[in-house]
Amino acid sequence: MTPPNKEVKAMKIDIGISHNDREKIVEGLSKLLADSYTLYLMTHNFHWNVTGLQFNSLHTMFMDQYTEQWNALDTIAERIRALGFPAPGTYKQFVKLTAIQEVEGVPKAEEMVSLLVNAHETVAKTARGIFPIVDEVNDQPTADLITQRLEIHEKTAWMLRSTLEY
């Protein structure tokens, strides 16, 4: 236990990636976290509010998607922490960082699906944008995380897009 009036100093991080490079990676991961949280919230909102002929299938699909997205948030935030920086965690921070536009009102089911396709593709572009610095500094754990997120978002966008075809 730290005695009162004693300052606790954090240990220096020495993982083979400089502070400045870790900071650049965290900037990208923070945007990915904000996009992912915004997508999570959008998907959960649509799960609650979807109506129409495809209600049951979309309601269930959206639930599966927001559950996966919720679990991913922790993985992204914990990578930011492992790199030595605080993870953003407020609406105010997420609004500044996200590239996904908030949806007003309750769209029809087909528009919900289109909005989710676009949002998943936006998250994929954000994730892909982190690769140059990650590759440059040989950060395999972040590369692995990004690769996994890309696979999920690209596949989900394809599956959602497929529901729009007749």
Gist of the model:
The chain has about 170 residues and is an all-alpha fold. The protein has helices at about 20-50, 55-80, 90-95, 110-130, 130-135, 140-165.
Please tell me about this protein's structure.
There is one protein chain. This protein is mostly helical. It has a single domain (37-163), classed as Up-down Bundle (Ferritin). Helices cover 70% and strands 0% of the residues. It has six helices and no strands. Helix 4 (109-128) runs antiparallel to helix 6. The longest helix has 31 residues, at 19-49. The radius of gyration is 18 Å and the shape is elongated. The model has no long low-confidence stretch (mean pLDDT 94). Belongs to the Dps family. It comes from Acinetobacter bouvetii DSM 14964 = CIP 107468. Residues 27-165 form the Ferritin/DPS domain.
